[in-house]
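Give me structure tokens for this 189-residue protein.
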Amino acid sequence: MRPILRRRLACWAKQYYITSFRYSEHPTFHLPVMTTANTSDKSRALQIRPATSSDLSGLIALDREITGLAKRKYWKDTFVRYGVRRRPPQYLLVAVHRGRIEGFIVGEVRAWEFGEPPCGWIFAVQVRPKTRLKGIGTQLFGTLCGAFRRAGVEKVRTITARDNHLVLSFFRSQGMMAGPFIELEAALD
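Here you go.
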């Protein structure tokens, strides 16, 4: 880690602490983690941290609970890319309360897509339905955006379906709005 990054993190000591997670294939990574929030009783005991190998089954179960689809292979592949073998700036963060995963967020920094400077991209965020509106999604979003800032980017982007009002409302509540791009697609026959 660069010394300037360490000094910058020290300034945020009241909101974040530095922790290490050792992965078998790579040296220890450091990622700031939001420890608590004062938005609800549930979130006061909430820990947001990078996902570990023991979180995979909990991630799969939470996704199945929310979407109704069992996507075991997808989550195994995602976990390898953004969890165990991740290389910053790729992030798979989990929100844990009393040993249970209550939510997660996945994102990465992408550079020079469509001629744009590097920016953060969020491509998955989920919070257990019974714990929504308790600040968990906001904490996940804030922690990931903090990691993006420390990676040197100034913007965060995402894509969501036009009719997904729940997710659209969440991102708008975080200050996100329509960006400069229009998504286009075509069927590949």
